[in-house]
Amino acid sequence: xxxxxxxxLILAPGIAAAAETELSNRIDRVTVFPDGAVVTRLGKAxxxxxxxxxxxxxxxxxxxxxxxxxxxxxDGAFSVGxxxxxxxxxxxxxxxxxxxxxxxxxxxxxxxxxxxxxxxxEAKRATIERFAQVGPDKLGPDGKALPVGDWPAVFxxxxxxxxxxxxxLRGTRNRLSDVEAEIASLERARPSPARPGAxxxxxxxxxxxxQSISAEFTxxxxxxxxNWTPTYEARLTTTGEKPEIxxxxxxxxxxxxxxxxxxxxxxxxxxxxxGGTRAPDLTPMQVAFFEPQIVAEARARAMALARKAEAExxxxxxxxxxxxxxxxxxxxxxxxxLAKPVIAADVAEAALEAGAYQANFQVPGRASIPQDGSSKxxxxxxxxxxxxxxxxxxxxxxxxxxxxxxxTHDEEAPLLAGRVALHRDGTYVGMGQFNLVAPGDKVELxxxxxxxxxxxxxxxxxxENDPTWLGQTRTDQREFRTMVKSLHTRPVxxxxxxxxxxxxNSGITxxxxxxxxxxxxxxxxxDRRGVASWTFDLAPGTExxxxxxxxxxxxGDRELSYEEQPLPGK
Length: 570
Fold this sequence. Notes:
Helix Hairpins; eight-stranded mixed sheet; alpha+beta; 3 helices; ten-stranded mixed sheet
C-alpha cells in the first residue's frame, strides 16, 4: 500500500497518547535552488497494531513546516494521519572534531613552550648587553682595570655571544610564528557548531495499522540557508583555422541549513524569479538647462523609481523534458609508438532536464556538502562552439581596442547571471560577467586589450559664441577625430563607439554637422540615446579616420548642464 499526505500542522485528538516509534532515517537526496533547498529523507519503522506515532527527531529549525510532505508504503495496509511539527530544545553541547581538538591542544602546548623560550633568550640577551655596558676598567680581578691586551678578547666574546643569542632568538620566534599561524588555520577550519541550546524540530507522523507491519517513509521539506550560484569558464582559441570558444558551466554550492548532507543524490534547479576584459560602456549624455539642485534631485528620484518599476516586471522561466548533455570530445593527444597511449580523464557532467519554465541538473554520483558554508564546485555542462571575433573601442574613454568574441547560445538551459573566467589562447585575461542568456541569444565576451590595434582620439576644434544682445542664441560647436590602425596580419572587424549629447527640451537643439562627420553605421546603438557606432573591416597595416562634429544651440540667457544618463538596465 502507498499513502500520500500533505503536511498538516493540527494535532489529531488522542495523538499525544499514542505510542511513539523513532524513525530510523537518512538524507537520500537534495534539490538545491538559488535561494533554498528541498531535502528528502528515507526511513524505515516497524508499526504497531493500532494507532501510533512515527517521530523524526532533531531536524533543523530552518525547515518550513508548511513544506513538509510524507509518503509511506509497507508490506501491509496502514494509513497516515496528521503530521505534527514540534519545537524542541537543541543540544546544549556543541559537537567537536576530536582529532582537530587534540591537534589544537598539542599546538597550544608547543606555543606556550616556545613563548617561554623566547622570554628566556631575551633575558640572556639583556644580561649580555648589560655586561657589555661595563667598561674594561672594571672587568679585572677585584673590580680593577683589565689589561689593555685583554680588551680585544672581551670585545670578541661579547660580539660572538650577542650574534649567537640573536640567531637563537630569531629561530625560536619564527617557530612560534609558524605554530600560531597553524593554530589560527585550524581554528578557522573548525565546523560551526549549532548555537548551544538552539531549537530543533521534531516531526511526528500519526499512523494506524490493523496489524503489525514493516513500513518505509519518504519525508521531504524545504530549508533555508542553502543556495547555488553559477560560475563559468570561457577559453578562446584564435590560433586554429577558425576561432573557437570552449565554455564550461559550473555550480558553487553552499549550505548552512543546520544538518549534514553526506553522500546524497544532488539536483540543482534554476527555479527562481529573479575590469578590464572588454571595452567600457559609454553612458549617454543629456544636455539641459541648468536648474537648482532641489529640482535635479527630484528628477533623479523619479528616474530611479521608474527604473525600479521596470526591473520588477522582469521574470524568467522553464515543462520538463529530460535530455543528457554530451561531454565535449577531447582532442587526441600525440602518442609515442613505444609508449602506452595517454588518455585524458573524462569530466563527469550533470544530466539536464530542461523545460519551458526551469532547468534541473542532476549531478552524477553522490555528493557531500559541508554545513559550514564552505563551497563545493561541480561541473554541469561543457561545449565547444565557433566564435566570431571583432575589436571594439571607445576612444573618448580609453584609447585602446578590446578583443570581443561572439557565439550563439544553443543549449536548452539558459545561462544564469554569473561571473566567467576568461582565457585567451591558454592565458588567463580576467573575469567577465554573464547576464541572463536565453537559448538562441547571441553572447559577446570581452577577452582583454588588443595591442595590435592602435587608437588615437583628439578634439580638433571648439567654437562658442557669447551673446552681444538680449535674446541672442548661443552656440557650442565641437569637432573630434579618431584614428584606428591595424597591425594584424589578417583583416579585422572594428567597431568605434562615440557619443553626441541629446536633449529633451525644445529650447535646446543638437545637430550633427554632416559635412564634417563620417556617416555612422548606426546612428543609435540599441536603446542608448546619443551613442553612435562605426563598424568597418580594417585590412592589415591600414588605418581608418572617423570624424565627428556637432553643434548645440540654446537661448543666450540660459546656462546648460551636462548629465550622464544611466545605462538601460543598470
